[in-house]
Design brief:
Chain A is an alpha+beta fold and 109 residues long. Chain A has 4 helices and 3 strands; from the N terminus they run ααβββαα. Classes of the chains: A alpha+beta (109), B alpha+beta (746).
């Protein structure tokens, strides 16, 4: 039996909406397949969150170079971990599909 | 520039009167502050009751001058008393080599080369991965190379032969048969040479260059049977020089013949030649490794030691950072048994060095004892993979969250690796030590639900114990391993941590002895008693872990290398070694997910009169639908019953979890059981289990790492706290438990 790899269609605002509504929890099988790919997207280095003020502030960082080093991107500073999940989901969506999902969601309203 | 402060202690388990030495490195600050604190509760964030520690009035509390201390990472061998090599005119050095990372930087094989003074001689792999030789010569140095790179992970016989009369050195690079088809060709080159022994060190080093205190240019790979002879030998003689029995014509010229298969479970390096040039390994290279002559007929080094004469050296092995002591605490009698730490603070950084105070010897101070899962702390110590692996978020279903202390191990690889990482050369990490700064052994964690810093969630259990008002002592896994069942004598209840994943045979035997002789076990975690580890009595603060049969290159210790060098025991999952966790605790690991936790639902078994004590004051059907660790009591890593692995037939599953997210992927043994039938409980679940043991003891298991995060909910007034406290109080009572005698009781 031939199994085809799941390919995320960047226009699938239904999947994006499902995640953005509930970043943590039981997701549909298709969103799970999409998330499995999105979470492996690391073209500029693995994305991590660096806590800069305990329980209050987190900054996006990318692991780059050899030996590896975390490069902080202060333009992505968050005060809520769930908001960070949403923001980085959108970044990864764009990296994987080339689609600005935020713009697409706005235009669909 | 921000200051950085880190440290460690020479021991972690002490009793009143004992001394514990703290070693500190502090950069970019003139001084630092140290205080001894007792730890009560981890940093729970705003959703929990908050962080709690109390300062201990200790004489060592104070301000200390800051200094940076360095770590010389990498394993090698020191042969300290090797002055005889200065008296050799002609000589031949031979060894079998299996390089794993050739062609990077020069990597030392053997010699007394002093890189600072450029004195002595050395056989090494040059920056291209070719066999090379260098030696002092007059005012300069001579260097020659075969110019042909060694292929990685292939055995070669390498030799240098120096003829003082002919004033020539010959390098031999000879492929050894390892049953694979190869293009590698034997190679010998000869070059005019003279060696000036003046100023050369009287100490030989194997697998690194060394100038007394600092080693460098470490070798990555295996070395087997290094030997030195007192004359220049022919190619034919060299080819015969690694045999078990030497031909008579070279027997008389043996200067040194190291046999690494002797003393595998020690640091000792034994020379079986006439001069007994014995030595020591530094920083725990892997021993008990297959040699150039491994036939595959035996898989245990004890059964065929002559085929296990290799040591695998790594440039990133580390046992002991070897720092100077900054201050030494004498544990006062007022320090009750519990969890303490040296709290180190520099201008803008804080670091904790936890330690454990046991009661005075022979005088337990409580009926309950908290078993500190120190073996698990070691297995995870400085886990770089969590931060660096591109697959982490995929596995855990959320973003990786770290802080500045976590990032220290990214920027400072000299702090060493965890057993979850791979060495620089791609091989598995078999050893982990606490004699170095450890970034994920602290009460304030960047992401407590990740089970990488297991210490912080364990403090949630300590917090609960303190809230109950029940006195408790502590002891560590390492204490239990070395002292055996005697360490638990007199205690009525053993309480575990949240994630007691790693256990030695002695630990399992001791706990089984305890529960079989009236003891009561409260297993308040998940993924417990899962992997086998080994300790060494002469190597405190260190575990060995061989994840045998694991189909992951970075974890698998390599074919024929499944037996621990420390103990000779087969490594791997206890489930595969005849001691599945279900035998001890009734439950065993089934799935993990780090995104969300769930709740338990009471089962019919919860109405059984045998567990009436457990549910006093609890009317709820749903338990633990709240908590600090991902929002529920059941989650992160979860266990369930499995009769075929040893769950007792009379065990009661009083509650089970449900509704886990699809990040909780089943492990292979769950898949093998097939699809659940309608009405079956979901295969991915945590089971809350109780059973009695012969002898009056009993076991209560929760099968979930997240469980401890629910204990403090709603000001400690909740059904998980009530349930757990009910169990603790009944388990502390003298009244014995009885095995159900009739089927109707079950």
């Amino acid at each position: 039996m031939e199994v085809e790899m799941y390919v995320l269609d960047g226009s699938r605002i239904d999947l994006a909406s499902e995640f953005l509504e509930r970043p943590y929890g039981i997701h549909s099988p298709e969103l799970k397949a999409a998330l499995d790919q999105l979470r492996l997207v690391n073209p500029n280095g693995k994305m991590i969150l660096v806590c800069t003020v305990p329980s209050q502030e987190w900054v996006l960082a990318e692991i780059k170079g050899a030996p590896p080093h975390a490069v902080l991107r202060h333009e992505y500073t968050f005060n809520d971990l769930t908001e960070a999940e949403r923001a980085i989901f959108k970044l990864r969506w764009c990296l994987l599909t080339g689609v600005d999902i935020e713009k697409l969601l706005q235009s669909s309203k | 520039v921000k200051s950085v402060i880190v440290g460690y202690s020479d021991r972690d388990s002490v009793r009143p009167g004992d001394r514990i030495a703290f070693k500190v490195s502090c950069e970019n600050a003139p001084n630092y502050r140290a205080d001894i604190v007792r730890l009560h509760r981890p940093d729970t964030g705003p959703e929990g009751p908050g962080y709690q520690e109390t300062e201990v009035n200790a004489a060592v509390n104070g301000t200390y001058p800051a200094r940076a201390q360095k770590i010389n990472i990498g394993s090698y061998i020191r042969i300290p008393d090797a002055g005889i090599i200065h008296r050799l005119n002609s000589f031949t050095v031979v060894l079998a080599v299996w390089p794993t990372n050739p062609g990077t930087t020069p990597q030392a094989l053997i010699g007394n080369w002093d890189p600072g003074q450029e004195k002595g001689w050395s056989l090494f792999l040059d920056g291209n991965g070719a066999l090379a030789f260098q030696c002092a010569r007059g005012s300069g140095k001579l260097e020659c190379s075969t110019g042909v790179s060694l292929p990685p992970r292939c055995w070669h016989l390498l030799a240098t032969s120096f003829d003082a009369e002919a004033k020539a050195v010959t390098l031999h690079q000879l492929p050894m048969s390892d049953k694979r088809v190869s293009l590698n060709q034997p190679l010998s080159i000869t070059q005019a040479a003279e060696i000036d022994h003046a100023g050369g060190r009287a100490e030989l080093s194997i697998a690194a260059w060394s100038d007394r205190n600092v080693a460098c240019n470490h070798f990555d790979g295996k070395i087997d049977r290094p030997r030195i002879f007192s004359r220049a030998m022919t190619s034919a003689e060299i080819a015969a020089s690694l045999l078990d029995q030497w031909p008579p014509q070279i027997e008389d010229s043996v200067v040194a013949a190291w046999n690494f298969s002797v003393g595998i479970g020690t640091d000792e390096i034994i020379d079986q030649g006439p001069n007994r040039l014995n030595g020591l390994v530094v920083n725990l290279p892997a021993r008990g490794q297959t040699g150039f002559n491994w036939s595959g007929r035996e898989y245990c080094w004890q059964n065929a030691p002559s085929e296990y004469g290799a040591i695998h050296f790594h440039s990133d092995d580390l046992y002991d950072a070897g720092w100077e002591t900054d201050f030494t605490l004498t544990v006062g009698t007022e320090m009750k048994s519990g969890i303490y730490a040296a709290r180190l603070r520099s201008t803008d950084h804080e670091f904790y060095v936890p330690f454990y105070v046991r009661p005075p010897l022979g005088n337990r101070t409580a009926d309950a004892v908290f078993l500190i899962p120190s073996a698990t702390y070691l297995a995870y110590a400085n886990n770089r993979g969590r931060i660096l692996s591109p697959a982490t978020d995929y596995l855990i279903g959320k973003l990786t969250v770290v802080d500045a202390t976590d990032l220290l191990i990214v920027d400072r690889p000299e702090y060493g690796l965890s057993t979850y990482d791979a060495h620089r050369d791609g091989s598995s990490v078999n050893y982990s030590s606490r004699l170095r700064p450890v970034s994920n052994h602290r009460p304030k964690d960047s992401d407590m639900g990740m089970a990488y810093n297991n210490f912080a969630p364990d403090l949630l259990i300590v917090d609960w114990l303190e809230q109950t008002g029940v006195q408790f002592d502590v002891l560590t896994d390492e204490d239990l391993h070395h002292e055996g069942a005697k360490a638990l004598e007199g205690y009525r209840v053993v309480v575990t941590g949240t994630h007691p994943e790693y256990a030695s045979l002695s630990m399992l035997d001791s706990l089984a002895h305890f529960t079989s002789n009236g003891g009561r076990l409260m297993y308040l975690g998940g993924n417990g008693f899962y992997w086998r580890v080994a300790f060494r009595s002469d190597k405190p603060g260190c575990i060995e872990l061989r994840r045998a049969q694991v189909n992951s290159p970075r974890w698998n210790p390599g074919l024929g290398q499944y037996f621990h060098s420390f103990s000779g025991e087969h490594g791997g999952l206890w489930r595969d070694l005849g001691r599945a966790p279900q035998m001890l605790s009734g439950v065993g690991f089934v799935a993990q997910g780090f995104d969300c936790s769930s709740h338990y639902r009471r089962s019919d078994d919860s109405n059984n009169p045998r567990v009436k004590f457990m549910f006093d004051g609890i009317e709820d059907e749903v338990l633990g639908d709240f908590g600090l660790l991902r929002g529920g009591a059941a989650g992160i890593e979860i266990d369930r019953v499995e009769a075929r692995y040893g769950t007792p037939s009379h065990a009661l599953v009083v509650a089970y979890s449900e509704n886990h997210t699809n990040i909780y992927e089943p492990f292979e043994d769950v898949v093998a059981m097939g699809q659940p039938l309608p009405g079956d409980r979901p295969p991915i679940r945590a089971d809350l289990v109780f059973f009695e043991c012969p002898g009056g003891g009993a076991v209560f298991s929760v099968g979930s790492i997240a469980y401890a995060g629910s204990l403090s909910h709603n000001g400690y007034k909740n059904n998980i706290n009530q349930l757990t406290t009910n169990v603790l109080r009944r388990f502390l009572a003298a009244e014995r438990f009885y095995m159900p005698s009739h089927a109707s009781d079950i």
